[in-house]
Amino acid sequence: MSEVKTDKISPRTGSGTVTLGTSGDTFSIPSGVILSNSGTASGFGSPAYASNASATDSTVNVDASDNLQFNSGYGSTATAYGCRVWIRFKGTGTVSIYGSANVSSLVDNGIGLYTVNFTNSIVDTDYSTLASPGAGSGRSDVFPSTIQTGSIGIRGLNSAVLADQNNISVAIFR
């Protein structure tokens, strides 16, 4: 095997293309080598983790079906299921959103009844919903009612009777 050592490779014309190898060649980059780019890199295909090829370093992986997998110290690499929608809102008086993601609007449908509309619909209604009243809500409860791909209905109860809730949190996982 031959070895070439150099500090710089430039095209002959000053603004041309330098070609290393030919189609099918493999270039190995040893561990610890840092590649840097101070210009625009082009002509590269999608990295392995963004195409349907497996890429792993034993802690983060994107499998052939594009499922994100990782090991967060639990002893194995497993598929991650993302929170598709979350919201925390005030459900008394004039309803208002404290914070949210993937929520286009919140509708007050009457005492203890709310609709959370999604910015981006979920692929189906086979999602999991977590809903809870905020601290200091007494004997109140919050639960999902109408489950749809573009929205979810939420009901607030106090002692089993529909009641507005001051602080409601909802998270949807799929």
How would you concisely characterize the structure shown here?
This protein is mainly beta and 174 residues long.
Structural description of this entry:
The chain is built from no helices and 13 strands. It is mostly beta strands and 174 residues long. It has two domains: 48-79, no CATH class; 83-173, no CATH class. Strands 7, 8, 10, 11 and 12 form a five-stranded antiparallel beta sheet that branches. A four-stranded antiparallel beta sheet has the order 1-2-3-4, with no helix packed on it. A hairpin with a 2-residue loop joins strand 11 and strand 12 (161-162).
Tell me the fraction of residues in β-strands, as a range.
35-45%
Largest sheet: 5 strands, antiparallel
The number of helical runs is: 0
- The best one-word shape is elongated
According to DSSP, the number of beta strands is: 13
Radius of gyration: 26 Å
| Structural class label | mainly beta
Following the backbone from N to C, one meets helices and strands in this order, namely EEEEEEEEEEEEE
Give the N-terminus to C-terminus distance in angstroms.
52 Å
Low-confidence stretches: 45-53
Number of domains: 2
Helix content, binned percent: under 10%
